From TrEMBL:
SUPFAM superfamilies: Ribonuclease H-like
A GO molecular function held by the record: nucleic acid binding
Protein name: Exonuclease
Species in which this protein is naturally found: Pedosphaera parvula (strain Ellin514)
Domain of life: Bacteria
């Protein structure tokens, strides 16, 4: 079964799930050839007893449009995560979680999946776009920021801090990197 890359972005009100909430998430499912197969997004009700971290909430004050976007049409985490699992399972391919940074986005998505859906279609793994860039650029991790990446890796897509927009943008970035890497001689199995 071919892989399908599920580029995912989350918006949160703090650094870790539990004490803080995932406010919204968006996923864009891409074939390796950069065909966008489907998307999924949800805005979530906050967790009972959780509260926004002061530093994060101060940042949100600088992003009023993104804040408004992630606070409308709220769903319970139970409903959203069960629908997300069903969406992933109907995709044509073995799901691979992709994010920038995966350490943050996967932490929230995995926690919410296990807590509210009882399973993760991604197992315990994720591809971090920054780490992939590090390997391709043959440079240090801290020198593998988006500013240091070649411009031809980027499509002209917005980065709005709205989860689905950012998932689409970062998925296209990953697919462009994947195509270049595969062209340079590394074969996908």
């Amino acid at each position: 079964m071919k892989e399908i890359y599920i580029s995912t972005d989350v918006e949160t009100d703090g650094p870790i799930p539990g004490p803080h909430s995932m406010l919204s998430f968006g996923s864009a499912a891409y074939r390796p050839d950069k065909t966008l197969v489907d998307t999924f997004s949800a805005n979530l009700e906050t967790l009972p007893g959780a509260e926004g971290a002061p530093e994060t909430m101060n940042w949100w004050k600088t992003q009023p449009d993104a804040w408004a976007a992630c606070r409308k049409d709220l769903q319970s985490p139970e409903v959203a995560m069960k629908n997300y699992v069903a969406w992933i399972k109907q995709l044509p391919g073995k799901p691979v979680f992709v994010a920038y940074p995966a350490g943050f986005d996967f932490l929230f998505v995995y926690w919410y999946l296990i807590r509210f859906a009882g399973e993760s279609p991604f197992s315990h793994s994720a591809i971090d776009i920054k780490t992939y860039a590090m390997a391709m650029l043959k440079t240090g991790y801290r020198d593998s920021t988006k500013r240091q990446m070649p411009r031809h890796w980027f499509d002209k897509l917005p980065h709005t801090h709205c989860a689905l927009d950012d998932a689409i943008e970062q998925g296209a970035l990953f697919c462009n990197m994947l195509a270049e890497n595969l062209k340079s001689g590394t074969k996908q199995k």
